[in-house]
Amino acid sequence: MIYMYHQDHRPPHFHVIGPDFKARIAIEDLRVLSRAGTSRPMGRAIRQALEWAEDDENRQRLEAAWAEYSGEGR
User: How far is CA 9 from CA 6, 14, 66, 67, 68, in A?
Assistant: First the structure.
């Protein structure tokens, strides 16, 4: 699952969270900022999230959501 939290800290990022893992991914360059957990599905979930976020329309959605949730779009 992809999550974004209200008024989260910079840099702009989203979270990929599963039952036994979590990761933070930068919106700007899709770099994995952090990851925790040892679950095998973590690698697959991160790859799927990156593939989804590489699409221009989806990246724009992430940027718009970050601006709204962080208050930086005001």
Answer: 9, 11, 10, 12, 13
